[in-house]
Amino acid sequence: MKILVVGGSGLLGRHVLDELRLRGHETTAVARTAREGVDRVLDVAKASHEELRELLSGHDGLVFAGGMDDRVVGKGPVEPRLYAGNVTPVAALMRAAREAGCTRAAVLASYYTYFDRVHPEWGLAAKHPYVRSRLEQARVARETAGPGLPVAMIEVPFVFGVASGRVPQWSVPVVKWVRSSAPLFAPPGGSAATSARGVGVVTADALEQASGADVPVVEENLRWNDMLGRMARAAGRPRPVRGAPAGVLRAMFRLGGRLNALTGKRPGLTVEHMDSLLLRELFVDPSHPRALDEEIRETATAG
């Protein structure tokens, strides 16, 4: 197959490309800026339909590995920025892919949509603009693609690993913390996790199967204290991880929400409702179970 990967210079995009090439598929890497390994420089969010149709011509499939992260913060309404980053380009790409004759597609999405699906009582979509943008992304992608172009939504949790100088965005402040001499504290709960390579493997599988499913990609479930402890050991600064009382954290989230309201900041994940995420066990049955020790070491020692 010949697969176009939008966001091919990013951490996950690079691993998707590597896995596809390892399996003998032909690939085209697209990114907004010129970088080693990028075949086409194009901002798909600003490209015309004709440009996208030409870009996809001759390809069997499409991977969208771009989009806007859940940590986006800015003044004013965040919803339009999330929609512009996560929904609009996917809709435009799926329309062009359908017209160009593509037969399969995958979108690198978020595991928050998995939890909104299996735990609607948590109200994640109502509380968090970022979750709403990812749900809308999936709906619009599939409606635009139509029945002849199955779109797999690869639901990505916390990611460990590196690629060409890229690290997971969430890890930057955490790695700085575990490398310091500051005490470590962790809330109750934890999260599903995977490696960047694991995302590449699951995405390549979905494309080869022409899957149109929602696919959580998980290799290990980690409690927050275990995650921080393993990262600190990998960084060469092992020390105990103390518990952070849930009540204190909830009070801090409420205060953070009030401060954001005063300053006009609007994050993708609403701070006053972060207890609906960080204080839970966001665990998923692993699709490819294995320990992430090597990828934790790579993440904690990068840079």
From TrEMBL:
NAD(P)-binding domain location: 7-144
Domain of life of the organism encoding this protein: Bacteria
A GO CC annotation given for this chain: cytoplasm
Gene Ontology molecular functions: aldehyde dehydrogenase (NAD+) activity
Pfam families, sorted: NAD_binding_10
PANTHER family: NAD(P)-BINDING DOMAIN-CONTAINING PROTEIN-RELATED (PTHR48079:SF6), PROTEIN YEEZ (PTHR48079)
Protein known as: Nucleoside-diphosphate-sugar epimerase
Organism encoding this protein: Amycolatopsis jiangsuensis
